[in-house]
Amino acid sequence: MSNLSAAFSTSSGGVPTLAELPRKLQKSERKPFVTNVNELKRRARLERKIRQEVHEVVLRPPENGLLVKRLVPVAHEVYAARNVLLKCVSRIVESIAVHFCSLCGEAHIGPFPHRIRTCNVSGSLASKEHSWEKGVTEHVLPLVESFHLYDRLGRAVSHEEHLQVDRIPAIVELCIQAGVDILDYPTRRRTVPVYNIAGKIIDFERKFPRDDTSGKDIQEFGFWERRENTWDSNSEALPTDDMQGLAIRGMEAWKKMRSGAMKLMQKYAVQTCGYCPEVQVGPKGHRARLCQAYKHQLRVGQHAWQEATIDDLLPPVYVWHLQYPSATLVDRLKRFYGKLPAAVELFAQAGAHVPEEYMSLMREDVAVPDLAEEKWVV
């Protein structure tokens, strides 16, 4: 790739730096650990040793049940940015075509579906060509759900309860646990911290009475009766006829939502399954036996929980980048094309400026040869 970069680069600063996307994992491979395995083992040994000694372990927010005050405004900014982002994407997809493959789920942004043969799943065509259909907002911004926890320090959701507990967007659940109050999804806000004594959580706060109705607004069977996407009615009105203005606002909201979510995840734990896309916001994962990934039989259907990354919480859905809106991508020249997250590519085609952090993925400084010139490329 370095030879291609040097031969076809249009930049004046020498050979550009081209970033490669993470390798797609095989079904039998586990996601990389955020924290080194040896460090995780060291922490586990330390926790076992602490549990054997009867003394108090000092907990800080949010481990003690209290909010991190400096992150409460960040949670509100992330929640508001998500609302703006959904509005912008839903309006722009009405003007810019979104396609998705009905077999493998790959997405494409542009007037014409690409002709790159990368559909390699069970039931796909022998030619590996995609079966394109018209896409919607969820193909640009995939919905990743998490169980809503009334008490984030309470016991994990059991398998028997997984149909009675609401599932909501994981980014919304993160904002709720970090300080955003939503009427439809009440959560317990502690005023007295919990204590860790000999490895056990002791809560001295007054218990809720048996006739407490603080959770009456939680709808049962929320997993099946999924609520429609609702946006904050108090949010700033967006222009309806200015496509470029919508794209600029959407790009800003995308950056603000991801950067804010990364700040929240530094304090508020988010778990993901090592083999499937399941996500649970909170200090521990749920116990619902719903995993169908590699060797789930050995885990009795339970997920292999590990620390999540921002891409687990907000999947970027990389799509092929179009240097020109009317360009048609062909299979023989795919090594010259760049990629972008679907939301960024959508806003870029609508007139927004692409952030610097994605420039190495776009490969716009690499000249794409014609089909007749392809055989002469070294």
Structure write-up:
The chain is α+β, with helices and mostly antiparallel strands and 378 residues long. The protein is 25% helix and 11% strand. It has a three-stranded antiparallel sheet, with no helix packed on it. Helix 6 (243-265) runs antiparallel to helix 8.
Low-pLDDT sequence parts? 1-16, 208-215, 217-234
Classification by helices and strands: alpha+beta
Order of adjacent strands in the largest pleated sheet: 1-7-8
Mean pLDDT comes to 83
Radius of gyration: 24 Å
State the total count of DSSP E strands: 13
Helix/strand order: HHEHEEEHEEHEEHEEEHEEHH
Largest sheet: 3 strands, antiparallel
Helical run tally: 9
Percent helix range: 25-40%
Overall morphology: globular
**Percent of residues in beta strands:** 5-15%
What distance lies between the first and last C-alpha atoms, to the nearest angstrom?
A: 10 Å
Q: What attributes does this structure have?
A:
378 residues; alpha+beta; three-stranded antiparallel β-sheet; 9 helices; globular
In short:
The chain has 378 residues and is an alpha+beta fold. It has helices spanning 2-8, 37-52, 72-92, 137-140, 170-177, 243-265, 310-313, 342-349, 359-362, and strands spanning 56-57, 98-101, 107-109, 132-134, 145-147, 167-169, 195-197, 200-202, 270-273, 279-281, 305-307, 318-320, 339-341.
How are the elements arranged and paired?
Layout: H1 2-8, H2 37-52, E1 56-57, H3 72-92, E2 98-101, E3 107-109, E4 132-134, H4 137-140, E5 145-147, E6 167-169, H5 170-177, E7 195-197, E8 200-202, H6 243-265, E9 270-273, E10 279-281, E11 305-307, H7 310-313, E12 318-320, E13 339-341, H8 342-349, H9 359-362
Antiparallel strand pairs: 1-7, 2-3, 2-4, 5-6, 7-8, 9-10, 9-11, 12-13
Helix pairs in contact: 3-5, 3-6, 6-8
